[in-house]
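Everyone, carefully examine this protein record:
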Amino acid sequence: LEVRLVVVLVPSLIFTLWDSVFIDERRPGTCPQLTPGSSGTCVEMCRGDESCPLGQKCCSNGCGHVCQTAV
């Protein structure tokens, strides 16, 4: 169980650190607010605003990240 947890968490941490250090193209606007107590699909569909179409931001859905229209 511990090895599987490390295998899952370490790559995620590396991608998060990579994006925060090397990719910092923040688009104007903010992400829509999450509904309290809800969580989305645990998938990473984007890795920063630049990976989304214009007018959208890479937003947390409560578990993963998805492109959403900026507000």
Remarks:
- The chain is about 30% helix and 15% strand.
- Residues 18 and 40 are 24 Å apart (CA to CA).
- Confidence is low (pLDDT under 50) at residues 17-24.
